[in-house]
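Quick question, first post here. What does this chain look like in 3D?
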Amino acid sequence: MAASPSSLHPSPAKISAHLRRSTSRPAAISIGRRFFELPASSPLSSDRLPIRPIRSRARISASASPVMEDLGEKADSRVSTVVEVDLGNRSYPIYIGSGLLDEPDLLQRHVHGKRVLVVTNTTIAPLYLEKVTKALTHENPGISVESVILPDGEKYKNMETLMKVFDKAIESRFDRRSTFVALGGGVIGDMCGFAAAAFLRGVNFIQIPTTLMAQVDSSVGGKTGINHPLGKNLLGAFYQPQSVLIDTNTLNTLPDRELASGIGEVVKYGLIRDAAFFEWQEKNMQALLARDPSALAYAIKRSCENKAEVVSLDEKEGGLRATLNLGHTFGHAIETGIGYGQWLHGEAVAAGMVMAVDMSYRLGWIDDTIVKRVGDILQQAKLPTSPPETMTVEKFKNIMAVDKKVADGLLRLILLKGPLGGCVFTGDYDRKALDETLHAFCKT
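> Answer (accepted):
Ran it through. Tokens below.
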């Protein structure tokens, strides 16, 4: 059985507790298990963050509480945890719990206006569209709900498919007081968010992620966008939702391969900033794969807390947030190179993380025990640990040259450095190590 942290089962006395934000503490970042203060003038530059140790271990940015105060004393609330993404007046809650689609108030409180457009796909619509529509309109006849059902798959994450969302919104005469709802995995969340950012120059939107990948990563933080034939996620916008509602029951219908794909992103958080979480995963991987409810709930909660902390300190990826992309430069190259949808995102990222770890070791920045542990845990999760044979060195280099993290012609990478849980985002590395890694994993 998986570990079951007490925070997942709050006592009645704590059910309405709200961990209030403090504005008196300095912003901090964590590197490994140490915390550092960022000077007020810090631009969060990518290569060298100006940091100095602080004596206090207090952190601000994300706060987790059993249930936020404005949920009241509703005894039958299924919310087990709320993680808050702290962005000042644009802050928003991530609700996590079992059966949350049966809690109409959680959705309705974040709806603006009386018109709602639910964006979903052909796989998710038969499962949850009716339930979400009922939740939006429950005892609220003034709400009008429309839906647009898109084809399912990464290969449809493009401008042509995105236009279907705009077509529906315009034909239905939606206005600026409308709300878009993303119901689905990462592809739907990214496209719905981008549509919300662009339609009438910005309308309200809500994320309802139904895959583990979306629940632990893509639904949080406001990254939206679509793919281009030459590169993944090259067109998009930073645009935050009003809320994220994670009903863990939606994982019951998730295929095993999709579940494993999401675990790839969970592993990432442990490697870049949370060694204790990585160690927990090593002990509980079989429970995660077996869909143990307590294990999944904790993995989602801890992943969301980690991402919320980073996003609240560096919303638009000035440097710190880029560390969340460990393995993604290699992984995105794989997805682009073999064709969108051939590998799931988490599968490509898993292989990419192994390559990033290999390169970190070649640079002398980590020891071989970390290399082995990363390989072992990804194999446990039944994820790829090397790219497809069709990926060549030349193909990797050509695709990586147009990666979003290229600046002034210099490819910057997220690499591990120091003890488990430490990483850097930098362009200051020996190019020979990158070449050696590519040649080690590619036949030509």
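The chain has 13 helices and 17 strands.
The CA atoms of residues 90 and 240 lie 8 Å apart.
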